[in-house]
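Quick illustration, no need to memorize.
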Amino acid sequence: MSSRELVVLGTASQVPTRHRNHNGYVLLWDGQGIMFDPGEGTQRQMLRAGVAAHDLHRICVTHFHGDHSLGLAGVIQRLNLDRVPHPVTAHYPASGQRFFDRLRYATAYRETVALAEAPVAADGPLATTPSYTLEARKLSHPVESYGYRLTEPDGRRMLPELLAERGIKGPDVGRLQKEGVLGGVTLEEVSEARRGQRFAFVMDTRLCDGVHALAEGCDMLVIESTFLDEDEQLAADHGHLTAGQAARVAVDAGVRHLVLTHFSQRYPDPGAYEQQARAAGYDGELTVARDLSRVPLPKRT
């Protein structure tokens, strides 16, 4: 199993269907789990997908429409019921504080988990860990909405042939990585720059600067494509994207793996999303998301 993968819990927009649950996504990243937009039924979808409450370290809500947030109450109570031993942080638009409060305390339960609230009020970084920086960008939707982006710090890739030339092997490789120099050999002499991986999550929005900023250079972009291109005006009126618009964003941003999701129930054929994304010029790795699927991040280049 990949140590970095997206678990899709639900892909429906507005209302669930027989085959699509309301929204819900978990990004597994180096032993941490980041949940995005838990809609109704998320707790049960977690069970079906093999995601435990103990896997979650952050919850990121883009906005407070029901299909993106009504599952919060159940997820928060499950964290407490299972006595998750580590702190969990919740990010959400600060303007929706009253909705978060209502969902957090929707019914009576015993609080056993340190749930930190970190509302988002502006573009910029939200948290920094050894393996990623999390940032938010404002989107364009009838209610305040933010997209999220993870960026891994740049690092170094060790080059075995250069290590061998200098007689560095075994535990000495780790010491060189940690200390930067070993026996007169510097880390730069036996390695090359390695760009950190980048992941973005873009839900309900029209095209705007925030969409492009989040997508730029991503290894994986998870993005809403509620409508097909023939309904582009309808998408704009309701604050959404079409499959073609999402794909063109990915082309312009140099995205390696495009994940389309958040589908309107009006379209019975999911294959149409892929067809329109390809017609828009996207030729990278493409996934039309399905409930309960797992999508690994691309391997580093």
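The first strand starts at residue 4 and ends at 10.
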